[in-house]
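Problem: given the chain below (732 residues), write out its structure.
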Amino acid sequence: MDTADAERDYERTAAPGRAALAAGRFEEAARLLGAAVHLRPDRAAAHVELADALRGLGRAGMARRAYARALAVDPSCAAAAAGLDGMDRGRQERENFRVGQRLASQRHIGHWTVLDVRRGGFGVVYVVRASDTGARKVLKTYDTRLLWSDEDRARFEREALTWVRLRPHPHVAPAEHVEWIEGLPCVVTEYAEGGDLARRLAAGALPPADALRFARHLCDGLSHGHDQLGLVHRDVKPANCLLTGDGTLRVTDFGLARAFDSAGADLPGLGELPAAAQALYTTVAGTPRYMAPEQYAPGTVLDTRADVYAYGVVLLQMVTGVLPPAGVSARAYVERTTRRRTRRTPLYRLIRACTEPDRENRPPDFAAVRELLDAAYRHVLGRPAPAPPETARLTAEEYVSRAVGLIHLDRFGEALEEAADGLRAAGRDGDGDVVHAKLWQVRGMALGRLRRGEEALAAYDRAVELNPREPSAWLNRGNQFHARERHEDALECYDRALEIRPDIGNVWGSKADVLGKLKRFEEAEEAASRAVALRPRDPNLLVIRALLRGKQYRHAEALEDFERALAVEPRSALALANRGNTLLLLSRPAEALDSLLRAEELEPDDPNTACNLTLAAYRLERYEQARASCEKALRLCGETAELLVHKGLIHAELHGHDEAELACYESAVAAAEQDDAWRATAWGRKGAALLALERPEEALACYDESLRIQPDRPWLREGRQAALERLGRAEA
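Solution.
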């Protein structure tokens, strides 16, 4: 089908779809506009119109995916951006980062400053500068406007892990490490001084020597990913081909296309859409004009040949300066636009072979592509093509980055292995004490996460011995002491770090936490405030200060810090749970319940959250909800006196006073053997229940026992007086 035919068929299908949309017939509109997307998947407007129809049907998840697909086709599509923003107004949990924003880094002592923001479909790319080194890097993460689920985040981490595991190669852009920044998982990669291939191709076709050089680089980089880890890139295109300052092409984004896979998202009703439209929103997020035909077929298992197809399209674009028009396959375009003699040349035979519609007819892998490319190279340039480069050996510094990335992905055993390999490499290459110290430090970090505390401390000892001027080693050593409740040793480490670098917010935060444990609240407050001043958007530091203020009964100030932390990271279970507890202490149970329920969604088995949910629901007289939370808390925490007392109170509200209620208080008395406050409470509650059951003599004995433990509680005295009155022995 030629371009005119494709456009004609598209308009015939889209026009009644638009009319149905305007009339509010959303099911009909979705069906017709889905068919239009099938005909012109390269048109951003087609995806926007389908998104509008899906939105009208209430399929919010699928509508977001359609808007995102429009942005993948055309990142400047204002209608798609407005559609996403309009859907999420009032619901958006957080925003993307902004130019000029300072981001707290887990890896670096300082921070990242955002220099540029580039959106593309499902993901966002940030060009950043490190404050401690001045180096430019790139952060890759997802677009928060899509409100990704925890499952999406986990998938992003898994796929980023494949890129981190990929061994160095001259034509693969390395994923240096992965870290969480303000609650978002980010892949940290190199910054390409030469931009990308898409920018070069904007000026038209490349000279033959440049086209063939980049073709070799791209072929060898993709071959490395496929051969080492069996990776299918899935989104090979010029924008994912970075250029270094010396003109070397390096493939980027290995694994990330699959990370943006939308499978499983809001699928009900998709059967009404054409298969190709379904595939666009339920399979890999490739870029339509480079996607192999099989990528449009739902459920197809992709292999290397999908990347071979995209490679052929990129090669065609480098040679001719244009992409095949929408609706025209690359193979058909070559056949139609080149002379018969040209089509017989090795270069065009390679392009035609790679872009065969049937994948069985394409080269099976990039080794076969390289053979065809070498023949084309000899024919065009009159000399043999250079041999593929050897896979580079990892340096000790690269082992450090890989190990840190694996630690951030909770792959502690693998990180330990990388640190060991790095130490061997450092010995082999004659690296100095500074590099050895970094490797011992990451070894300590991995051992600490594996709960091998003594070994971790020994590793940190070696790190600070080799490089006593590295503040992060002292910080990590102090954190290990802190975890083992050796607080004075921890403080000594933090002070050593601050002697070297007094501007490290994380060290001040850790010091504040330890001082709080030692009840040195004035010093702790000063340290926490220093930490927050240095890293005002670090939610962990804000939570540390909030908890300190809570311990001093400064609940209103603590609440302010929890709110600030949640403004940065709305999905922080720790901040949500402690905010809920603080709201309870401020007698705001309805708000507390909302915050605690959100915390429970994120951390369903947190015992403190279950306990506080019990209190909030009880105070709001939601007794069934309180009962369920109380039972859950008892399972998670065991039979504490506080929970048993509340179990009795809730039972009384639901079933009246009876022996089951009394049994709860008896158990609470036993559980509170070492806690006078709750033992007195349990006796008092039992007394109140007995009084309600018209057993005043027994009630009086309970009140007497409770007052013997804590004689200054007014409600116990009032209860005792009521028991005496029932017995006719009222005291003056």
